[in-house]
Amino acid sequence: MVITLIGYRGCGKSSIAPRLARRLEWRWIDSDRVIEEQAACSIRHIFETEGEAGFRKRESEILAELLQQDHLVLASGGGAILAEENRVRIKAAGPVVWLHASIEALAKRLSRDRSAGENRPSLTGRPIAEEVAEVMAIREPLYRECATIIVDSEREWPEQVARRIARQIDQPPNDGPTSATRDGGEL
After folding, report:
1. Does the predicted model carry a pTM greater than 0.70?
2. pLDDT in the model for residue 114
3. DSSP 8-state secondary structure symbol assigned to residue 173
4. What is the DSSP letter of 76?
5. Is the distance from CB of 87 to CB of 141 less than 8 angstroms?
6. What dotted CATH number matches 2-180?
7. 143 Cβ partners below 8 Å, 6+ apart?
8. Distance CA 66, CA 21 (A)
């Protein structure tokens, strides 16, 4: 079984994955790091030399390999859900956790992360808040489609979010995605 963390860049996937893996005594992998290691360059460089299509092809190939593993927490790339084949594979591999945060929170986090601009390309060429809003308009329905669990990653520390996910993973599945926030209410 693979637990896949999905969500927009800056939602906390890479911070929460190792904490969740530690709680479960599993391994964890960040798919973007695997892509960079195999390409021996940054994602930004891949976008510049191969375009988004080249990057997405690499991403799909890596995901197909990683999703075959067992006892793995996978921090997926923010756009991994764009390809239907990836959505199908992610859902078939195990629970899918959408780390949800508001557009404002994501833009604020990304604005503070200086390395993000160096390593990750702009997807629209617009200011970060506009880009997040534009890209999320496309991705949010896909995140929702994939998610078996939706967790608000905006109001809690990564360790708290990991604990919340671990508790929900231990519960028997129900008919649809569950939502979790600090106060227990819906997102």
Report:
1. yes
2. 56
3. P
4. -
5. no
6. 3.40.50.300
7. 6, 7, 8, 81, 98, 100
8. 15
